[in-house]
Request: fold
Amino acid sequence: MNTAERVLAYGGGWLDRAAALRTDPTRLGELLADPASVVLPLWRDRCLVDEGGPVRLTAERASLVRSATGTTVFLGLDENEVALFAVDLSALSEQSAVEMAGAARAVDVRALVGRLDPGSAAVQAYARGLLHWHRQQRHCGTCGAPAVADGGGHVRTCTDAGCGRLLFPRIEPAIIVLVEAPGPPGRCLLARHAGAPEDAWSTLAGFVEVGESLEDAVRREMAEEAGVTVTDVTYQGSQAWPFPAGLMVGFRATATSEEVRVDGDELLAARWFTRAELRARAASGRRLGRVDSIDHRLLGAWVAAGD
Reply:
């Protein structure tokens, strides 16, 4: 794993997902019974934490928590071959879940990024995304029959004998783009989104549609939201974003003109910023993108690339 991969939150973790074990119920049962195995409890997409961070339950406490939930998923093996599982305590009240796990409170994993090492943040986000999917995929989308967890929690199976469809977690890809001006001086396009504070500016983004390549999505979204035609669409990197099921794919692109026409719906305003302006914003304490998001990397790399 290289340094660039470590920069982005929620990816590049140390966990071996051990996919072959998902179809071995005997071995999974042994791992669940192993007092050394670790259980990560979550409540309605939130991590249960104490003063040291997310709680990691073993032995009797882990068994107690697992008995209170119908959803236990196998996450993988850590560097010491210790099995990690996640359980969803969402059926309980928040207070009951916190007390059962021996935690202090429930918090969003995104609030913990600065306190967790990248691998731990990746595991917590992975657990969050998988458990969220289970809560949303209770029934078969084809026949409507109940669907039950299988494969260590990585598939759900329709219980209707005439259907039996296998349901897998779905990822929702989105593109996020740093658009550069067509000529000097160097400038990039930032937008103020609906609902954002008055002086909050960020890169442009949007979901990929059916039958569309990532590059097609970049060109369509820039045209629809900001009235900008772009060329030289270049891949920059990707980021796991399980909030609840995203995959953020970063690009740079070059506008063919400086004209901007926002849609007035998703974007309220958009304008060109020089590197000097962005450096001044950063120096005044205004962040360039979310610190845990790929847009922070896109903006930081662009600002550092010139005067």
